[in-house]
Design a protein that fits this description.
By secondary structure, the chain is an alpha+beta fold. The chain is built from 3 helices and 5 strands. The longest helix is centred in the C-terminal third of the chain and has 14 residues, at 65-78.
Amino acid sequence: MNIHVGDWVDVAYERDKVIGYIVQNDAEGERCTVKVTKSENHGRMECLIIDYRKICVHEYAGLVLDDIGSLIDLALQTRDKGWFNELMHEFHSWVPAWRVLQKN
């Protein structure tokens, strides 16, 4: 399997569907470390070590507000100031749903 750090993946882990991104790759051992961004049973931003055979490529359906928060965390960890600034702009451009509903 061709897996790279930063790839988004879906994982079957302990009877749970986990969505996250690769933060470390051990190609020799055929496993990687996944930073959890969405899960029913595992905390957001928890790291899990996963075997390759339990991973599939995540189908990207666009960003939601929770995704932006996770990406901001990643930008801070990687010390990517430009990406952080872009994400913060994106974060602040979201209009809370209650404001939109109030106008109607």
